Amino acid sequence: MVNFALTEEQQEFRKWVHEFAEREIRPVAPQYDETEEFPWPVVKKAAEIGLYSMDFYLQAGQDESGLMSALALEEVAWGCTGIGLGIFGTGLPLAALAGNGTPEQLKEWAPKMFGTPEDPRLGAFAVTEADAGSDVSKLRTSAKRERDGWLLNGTKVFITNGGIADVHVVVATVDPALGHRGQATFVIGKDTPGFREGKKERKLGIRASHTSEIVMEDCWIPAENLLGGDEKLAAKIERARSGQKTGKTSGALATFEATRPMVGAQAVGIARAAWEFARDYAKERQTFGRPIIEHQAIAFKLADMALETDAARLLVWRASWMARNGQPFPHAEGSMSKLKGGEVAVRVTDEAIQILGGYGYIKDFPVEKWHRDAKIFCIFEGTSEIQRLVISRALAAE
Ligand SMILES: Cc1cc2nc3c(=O)[nH]c(=O)nc-3n(C[C@H](O)[C@H](O)[C@H](O)COP(=O)(O)OP(=O)(O)OC[C@H]3O[C@@H](n4cnc5c(N)ncnc54)[C@H](O)[C@@H]3O)c2cc1C
Q1: Which of 225, 350, 369, 370 sees the fewest Cβ atoms within 10 Å?
Q2: pLDDT class of 249 with cuts at 50, 70, 90
Q3: pLDDT (tens digit per residue) in 132-188
Q4: Domains and CATH numbers, the chain
Q5: Cβ distance 94 to 132 under 8 Å?
Q6: Is any ligand 1 atom within 6 A of the Cβ of residue 131?
Q7: What distance in Å separates the CA atoms of residue 31 and residue 349, rounded to the nearest whole number?
Q8: Angle in degrees, CA 315, 317, 322, rounded to 5
């Protein structure tokens, strides 16, 4: 049976998050966009009401519809997606920890990512390097066995929460010749000698989100910081060296399919913010003796903006449901939802600027910021081109 209606409980939950976004996020969004500071006070408020917590993810994991995270992320992004990343950016390192670590490792490190409501902390997931973005197999941060532990050397770039997180989940190579099959995932705790923040990036959009390099110089970590443990890594490397194929979808790809709808949900939040604002403006603004919404050229733009936003949301909800219910992703439906969300957010925010005319282009109105914020959704967590590659490969494999 297919049911598109949200339950009363889901509607209540969405309203609760929306009110938080309206009260605590939207009013301060321009300020953080301007200063590029990390929105600690907002994250703290989110932690106090339980929106930023381990418990939120545990509850979302139990929600059979799979929609809880998607609903929350859309509403928060409606408020400001830069601040939204401050609140939900820890979800990605948490997924990496849960996907690669043992239950004991998850129990040890996940609470450190969140801290307490009085003193919230962050997590970061570091894969990208200067010469390895889309092509992750080329990453060169090395991990070598030393003194019953691991010695890490290398620099990661563009890391969300990089250097300000208490817990960094880092992908490094143990054997570069084996590409991604020679890679392992490690966890690095706060104040580890040899680990430091590099350059903080200045950005076009999502400026409340912190993006930095992280540098590892002879950074030694104990053996137990290898996620999944020694035996699992040894077996993986052995299989890769003997040229053996696993025959099933790689764990990393499956994790991406499950996390990409969450990226799509944030993009939907920006798109909705933009078309709602443009609609209200178009009802007020008069030209040639009538509200501009009565000019068909503007009315049709609004129709397309609402249509595309709904289409993107439906893809996000479908993929969220598939992820929660252990469905395979035969057509890479997770990637589809992220691709559609990002491209819709860019188009809808562009049209919102057009509808506001000159007022769309200046900072007194929020739509120029939404357009700047939207673009990242076609770039991070797999560019639009990479999503198309993943989808087309899934189709070709059928
Ligand atoms: C604000 C921000 C936050 C980020 N946060 C994180 C984070 O927390 N952790 C992390 O690890 N990384 C993070 N990233 C990195 C991000 O995931 C990468 O920038 C992204 O994957 C693209 O890699 P690249 O920049 O090296 O581009 P490249 O891989 O160099 O791509 C350049 C262009 O070539 C295209 N291209 C590449 N390969 C192909 C192909 N095979 N076919 C067709 N086209 C192709 C791309 O689509 C793109 O248009 C972040 C980036 C930004 C900007």
Answers
A1: 350
A2: low
A3: 999 999 999 999 999 999 999 999 999 999 999 999 999 999 999 999 999 999 999
A4: 8-114 (1.10.540.10), 123-241 (2.40.110.10), 251-396 (1.20.140.10)
A5: no
A6: no
A7: 20
A8: 95
383 pocket-lining for ligand 1 (C-beta < 6 Å): yes
Cβ 344 under 6 angstroms from ligand 1: no
Q: Whose CA is nearest to atom 45 of ligand 1?
A: 385
Length of the chain: 398
Cα–Cα distance, 227 to 153 (Å, whole number): 17
Which DSSP string corresponds to 243-299? T----S--HHHHHHHHHHHHHHHHHHHHHHHHHHHHHHHHHH-EETTEEGGGSHHHH
Secondary element (H or E) of residue 151: strand 149-160
Compute the distance from residue 396 Cα to the ligand 1 centre, in Å: 24
The single residue of 129, 257, 308, 381 carrying the catalytic annotation is: 381
pLDDT, tens digit, 9 for 90 and up, residues 194-211: 999 999 999 999 999 999
> Looking at ligand 1, which atom is closest to the CA of residue 206?
1
**Is 133 a pocket residue for ligand 1 (Cβ < 6 Å)?**
yes
Cβ of 134 below 6 Å from ligand 1: yes
CA distance 344 to 362: 22
381 is catalytic: yes
Q: Given the CA of residue 92, which atom of ligand 1 is nearest to it?
A: 8
Q: Are 124 and 93 in contact (CB under 8 A)?
A: yes
**Amino acid letter for position 41:** P
Query: Strands 195-200 and 183-189: what pairing?
Result: unpaired
Amino acid at 24: E
Sole residue written with tokens 């580890």: 192
